[in-house]
Amino acid sequence: MTSSTTTRVLTGITTSGTPHLGNYVGAIRPAIAASRDPSQQSYYFLADYHALIKCHDPAMVHQSTLEVAATWLAFGLDTERALFYRQSDVPQIPELTWYLTCMAAKGLMNRSHAYKAAVQENADNGADADFGVTMGLFSYPILMAADILIFNAHRVPVGRDQIQHVEMARDIAQRFNHHYGDYFTLPEAVVDDQVAVLQGLDGRKMSKSYGNTIPLFDDEKKLRKKINKIKTNLLEPGQPKDPDDSALFQIWQAFATAQQCAQMRTAFADGIAWGEAKQQLFELVNSQLEEPRARYQELIAHPEQIEAVLQQGAERARAEAAPLLAKLRSAVGIRALG
Ligand code: TRP
């Protein structure tokens, strides 16, 4: 139950891909840990409406929804405590999206990074500015605002690329409050600098769009293969290596204890062979993924169990969203005539 002293923390996961190590370290692990904090009520949801913005492959959207849900459950998210639901199961969200759409300035949307990046790419390619730009892409910060405001979330943990969207949610909420009355809490983006942004196989940020990811729940063999592909340099065994210039060490750090980090630093200084370092990294990562992997496979084999968990979450989410939405409808003038 939420009380007035509970901080509501909300974040969404777009269901357009297979979860990878970077998602785990950067989002899933900290979110699950935070959800155990008794002073916090977590709202974690599968942003499947958002997936449609980038992904027009229905099989992929569906499969990703399954995989993302199974991943969070496999890592032990306590769905009795946290509210875990699928966005499309909460009709109050798209309804609120419309009320907010009618309050959101077009000029604000023009400034959205995601939209501007698409326009820029078109300019670079000599294409029409609007080429490939859907209204979904253009106005998705409003959908995101509705995700956040429907539960009056206080805090929204996000990656740096999403800060702007949370600020837009604040702007839109402020405008709504100013015009119709004080209905919305102004949300704050939280970016945790302690949380690692994991490097990928090529040393750039691990990201689906760079094709440099290590999937979380591939079998052991594939995990080992991927880890062997992490980019290193030509230094030979016996030559000292610089941990601070190594994607391999950076991934090590994200899984290791302080003591294990210190040990690996020493091993680098002592010239550990890359092959050996990779072997150790595989063992470390694999030891932490083994159990969740087994649970994940079990869950994927029983999608109806996942569906049941999501349905329970959706019921709670709808019950919580409905009273605020009823007030908002009335506030904008949509109410019974007599
Ligand atoms: N747009 C976010 C992303 O791409 C996902 C998301 C959707 C989200 N709705 C949200 C995050 C609400 C925080 C709050 O990462």
TrEMBL record:
A GO term from the CC aspect: cytosol
Sequence motif 'HIGH' region, location on chain: 15-23
Cell location: Cytoplasm
Motif ('KMSKS' region): 205-209
Superkingdom classification of source: Bacteria
Binding site for ATP: 14-16, 22-23, 159-161, 198, 205-209
GO biological process: tryptophanyl-tRNA aminoacylation
Binding locations of L-tryptophan: 147
One Pfam family in the UniProt entry: tRNA-synt_1b
Reactions it catalyzes: tRNA(Trp) + L-tryptophan + ATP = L-tryptophyl-tRNA(Trp) + AMP + diphosphate + H(+)
Entry keyword set: Aminoacyl-tRNA synthetase, ATP-binding, Cytoplasm, Ligase, Nucleotide-binding, Protein biosynthesis
Molecular function via GO: ATP binding; tryptophan-tRNA ligase activity
InterPro entries in UniProt: aa-tRNA-synth_Ic, Rossmann-like_a/b/a_fold, Trp-tRNA-ligase, Trp-tRNA-ligase_bac-type, Trp-tRNA_synthetase
EC number from the UniProt entry: 6.1.1.2
Family, as annotated: Belongs to the class-I aminoacyl-tRNA synthetase family.
Free-text function comment from the UniProt entry: Catalyzes the attachment of tryptophan to tRNA(Trp).
Subunit structure of this chain's protein: Homodimer.
Name the UniProt record assigns to this protein: Tryptophan--tRNA ligase
